[in-house]
Amino acid sequence: MKKPKITNSNKLYNKAIKIIPGGSQTFSKGPSQFTNNFAPKYLKKGKGCKVWDEDGNSYIDYVMGCQPLILGYSDKDINNAVNKQLKNGSTFSLMNRLEIEVAELLVKHIPSAEMVRFGKNGGDATTIAIKIARAVTKKQKIAFCGYHGWHDWFIASTDKSNGIPKFNDDLIYSFEYNNIKSLESVFKKNKNEIACVIMEPITVPEPKCFTKVCKNNSCKINKVCRNNFLHKVRKVCKENNALLIFDEVVTGFRYSIGGAQEYYNVTPDLTALAKGISNGVPLSAIVGKKKYMSLLGDDVFFSFTYGGECLGLAAAKACIKKLIKKKVPNYLQNIGSFFQSNLNKIIKKYKMDSFLSCDGHPCRSVFTIKDFKNYKNLEIKTFIQQELFRRGILWAAYHSLSYMHKKKDIQKTLNAFDETFKILSKIIKEKQNIKLKIEGDLVSPVFRKVSDFNSFINKR
Ligand code: PMP
Question: Tens of pLDDT along 332-343?
């Protein structure tokens, strides 16, 4: 099977690297994440779950613009809403009624939302949440679990901390998901100093359930469970006078219309929303309890030219309404279960389940690759990605499904995985050198310190 032609992609990239540092605006869209010299670099068009690159190749996309495209590319209702708003204008000199309309929708559907302010990136929402927590508690330190954006308070904890004053790193402490002791220990070591806990309510594993009668995670089904890891985190925050911030930048609207907080029946003090809110037209939101959010009125400064920009708001209004009308979270759960269970079956068929698995919740599953014998996980990942690209699948080891991923697309993807795993199992069985089978460059991790998706950036 032929390698995709990437002549135009490479020509563009050679121009870009001369005038754009790193070539890409978003680290995870750059060639370090998509096997360089094999994968395309530039996309030109998207429709539904498909994208077309600059050389005319098409792919079923599982990255979906780094996850915001929950309704798929170029959705007609979003396009209509944005086009209609564009005729009236996008940025105004005074406020616009859309700010209220979208805020009302969020207050109605997100359990923690009593008041709302808008930003543009996920990082705007997580950063202002931290600022509110520090202002409310008059404390400075942060306990975190996961990735929360490019801002100094967070990136200080990673190996990409160049240019960030050192004090930021002294103020942020990681804990491990589903390990309440690790959070308690952060509080113990920093007595009366932790302003807030910020975390994604779920990344890969389900929150551990501590009730015996509620085993097999039935808490996610009956929604009455009040005894899972997230409830414990809630309790620890309360006992320590720290705010609980859920980073629902990815989970928001994917797990349920009310976010993962509704799905798992745990209400945080503040919530950051972004990717799922407006189907790729830039918008984020910080929502939360009135007694905390009201600080943004006067006491805590959060203001910028494009706050309240109307194309994002028009998209959000149309997007949230459509997500509700079409019951998109249910759809993602069903199509995601079909995909995930069949993918794991194929892995088993080729007896590779000791080092490959498709884990996590079906609406946002993650492909786990462990080192196996002499084969390193990044070599295996690069090989799988290469073979999937060859077969028309754009893949980066997570599956950000959309309403436009239909059964036929999933089936085509499963077939591509089957063919890929067949070749991979032969390589392993015959002890072949996988490096000789990789036609492009190895992909690299975003952060070198990432050990796994959960403990993520475990510096301390
Ligand atoms: N939180 C989470 C969980 C994210 O995945 C991201 C982005 N990948 C962010 C925050 C930051 O969002 P943005 O890149 O839009 O600033």
Answer: 999 999 999 999
